[in-house]
Design brief:
The complex is a heterodimer of chains A (115) and B (116). Chain A is mainly β and 115 residues long. Helix content of chain A is 0%, strand content 50%. Chain A starts with a strand and ends with a strand. By secondary structure, chain B is mainly β. In chain B, the strands form three sheets. In chain B, strands 2, 5, 6, 10, 11 and 12 form a six-stranded mixed beta sheet that branches. A four-stranded antiparallel beta sheet of chain B has the order 3-9-8-7, with no helix packed on it. Classes of the chains: A mainly beta (115), B mainly beta (116). Chains A and B meet through β4, β5, β9 and β10 of A and β6, β10 and β11 of B.
Chain lengths: 115, 116
C-alpha cells in the first residue's frame, strides 16, 4: 500500500541553524500539507500546497518557514533560523485532491529538536 | 469557527474495562468530516475512522465503536474490553469548508492509560 515517507525521523539542530525536513508524498497525490505538534500538545496545521503554490497557511507559518516541491517526488519544509520553540514533531500529509471528500494520508513524522 | 474539544485530558482504566473518549466539535458547515487518530508512544498518527456529516449511523470495528450525534455535535469513541496496547493519545479531528483547503483541525487529545 502506498504511504507517505519522511526523512529524517529525528533531527537535532542548534538554534539559529537552517533545517530542511523532507517528505515523499504518495505518487498520484496533488495536495501536500505540513502539520506541527509541540510535545504534549495538539497537532496544528501549518500549510497546504498545490500546483507549486501555497493554498493556505496558518498564523504559525511565518516568514521563517517555506515549502517547496524541488522535484517530482519530494516536498520540503524549511525553517530558516530555528528557535527553541520550533522543537516539535512535524508531520507531512498528502491527498489526491484538496476537497474535504478526499482523505489525507500522514507520514510517520520528523521529530525536530532545537538546542 | 471550527473547533474540536476533547475535555478529557487523561483517562486511566484497568484492562478489560470499557472506556469512552468524548469529542465535541463546532462548525458552521453542513458538510464536514470527523476523524479519530491514535498516537502511540512511538509518535506516529494512526488513522482510525473518518465519518461524513451525512452519515449518522454508529460504526463498530472490532472492539472500537463510534457514536456520532449531530444534535449534540459529538463524535464519541468507545473501546470495549480495553487492552494495554490501547494505551496512547487519541485525537479527534474535523475537516470542513471553513478554509481554502481540507486542513484538519485537531482536538487537544486524550491520553488513555490502560493498566494491566
Amino acid at each position: 500500500e502506498p504511504e507517505v515517507t519522511q526523512t529524517p525521523s529525528h533531527q537535532v539542530t542548534q538554534m539559529g541553524q537552517e533545517v530542511i525536513l523532507r517528505c515523499v508524498p504518495i505518487s498520484n497525490h496533488l495536495y501536500f500539507y505540513w502539520y506541527r505538534q509541540i510535545l504534549g500538545q495538539k497537532v496544528e496545521f501549518l500549510v497546504s500546497f498545490y500546483n507549486n503554490e501555497i493554498s493556505e497557511k496558518s498564523e504559525i507559518f511565518d516568514d521563517q518557514f517555506s515549502v517547496e516541491r524541488p522535484d517530482g517526488s519530494n516536498f520540503t519544509l524549511k525553517i530558516r533560523s530555528t528557535k527553541l520553540e520550533d522543537s516539535a514533531m512535524y508531520f507531512c500529509a498528502s491527498s489526491e485532491e484538496g476537497r474535504i471528500t478526499h482523505e489525507q494520508y500522514f507520514g510517520p513524522g520528523t521529530r525536530l529538536t532545537v538546542t | 469557527a471550527q473547533k474540536v474539544t476533547q475535555a478529557q485530558t487523561e483517562i486511566s482504566v484497568v484492562e478489560k474495562e470499557d472506556v469512552t473518549l468524548d469529542c465535541v466539535y463546532e462548525t458552521r458547515d453542513t458538510t464536514y468530516y470527523l476523524f479519530w487518530y491514535k498516537q502511540p508512544p512511538s509518535g506516529e498518527l494512526v488513522f482510525l475512522i473518518r465519518r461524513n456529516s451525512f452519515d449518522e449511523q454508529n460504526e463498530i470495528s472490532g472492539r472500537y465503536s463510534w457514536n456520532f450525534q449531530k444534535s449534540t455535535s459529538s463524535f464519541n469513541f468507545t473501546i470495549t474490553a480495553s487492552q494495554v496496547v490501547d494505551s496512547a493519545v487519541y485525537f479527534c479531528a474535523l475537516s470542513d469548508y471553513g478554509g481554502a483547503t481540507n486542513k484538519l483541525i485537531f482536538g487537544t487529545g486524550t491520553l488513555l492509560a490502560v493498566q494491566p
